[in-house]
Amino acid sequence: MSLPAAEQAVALDRSFFERPTVAVARDLLGVWLISATDEGVSAGPIVEAEAYGGPDDLASHARAGLTRRTTPMFGEAGHAYVYLVYGMHDCLNVVAYGAPAAAGAVLIRAIEPMVGVDLMRARRGRPSDADSRLCAGPARLTQALGVDRSMDGHDLTLGEDVWLAPPSAVGSAAPAAAQAAAFEIASGPRIGVDYAGEDWAARPWRFWIAGHASVSRQR
DNA sequence: CGAATGATACCCT
DNA sequence: GGGTATCATTCGG
Questions:
Q1: Which of A46, A76, A113, A204 has its CA 20 to 30 A from that of A105?
Q2: Is A214 (CB) below 7 Å from strand C?
């Protein structure tokens, strides 16, 4: 299954990302994440995302200020910020604007595998995993889509290699059930940010589609 | 539950 | 320029 060529170029506009990260994270639910490499196309709608702010957000990498690693977070919105965590996992973020500082990003934590599921499974190398769990987690997702730090700084609005597209742009490629406009949005504290202190750790900046089988953790 | 695993940032010389 | 604590996770026992 592949995306019609004429529709591959449709990507979310940069203005979508030039807003506070919390609004962008919430609005990314249902938006398609698409990867097109030499190996093929793999894609699916985002079902879970987390907002990270600027230097004032103690849970955000931006708290370290502008360093070589965090440079994308302080750059133009709509670009990728890909980093290595725990020495072995790549995580994909989209740069957006944290408030009050003009820096921040949204961590894409899970998508629903819908296009190129066999390719995702091959990249993951875990044949017994259920389809719905192939991209249920930030590191699983990058592995399944073939995204790594070579994509750090990549412009996600170009419609090339890796990009984000509104559901309407991939309508003919998606099963009808996935195009249902209405879904319930749930929110809660971000994962694994207790080190940031109670104030920041308690903020409900993690958003997911309620009850969805591909969300990284069950409620 | 705990191990795996390595880049990063930061605090020293 | 070097040592080291930290870490937005995953998988196997």
A1: A113
A2: no
Residues 6+ apart with CB under 8 A from A87: none
Chain B nucleotides close to protein (CB under 7 A) are 4-10
Per-residue pLDDT reduced to its tens digit, A2-46: 565 545 568 999 999 999 999 999 999 999 999 999 999 999 999
Distance A54 CA to C11 C1' (A): 32
Burial A29-38 (b: 16+ CB within 10 A, else e): bbbbbbbbee
**Residue–nucleotide distance: A139 CA to C8 C1' (Å):** 10
pTM as predicted = 0.92
Q: What is the pLDDT of residue A100?
A: 65
Statement: the CB of A90 is under 7 Å from strand C:
no
A193 touches strand C (CB under 7 A): yes
Give per-10-residue mean pLDDT for chain A (219 aa): 58 96 97 96 97 94 92 95 94 88 92 96 92 96 96 96 90 58 90 91 95 86
Q: What is the pLDDT of residue A6?
A: 44
SS3 A63: helix
H-helix or E-strand spanning residue A26: helix A21-27
Q: Delineate the domains of chain A, giving CATH numbers in brackets.
A: 6-209 (3.10.300.10)
Nucleotides of C under 7 A from a protein CB: 6-12
Alpha-carbon span A2 to A111, nearest angstrom: 17
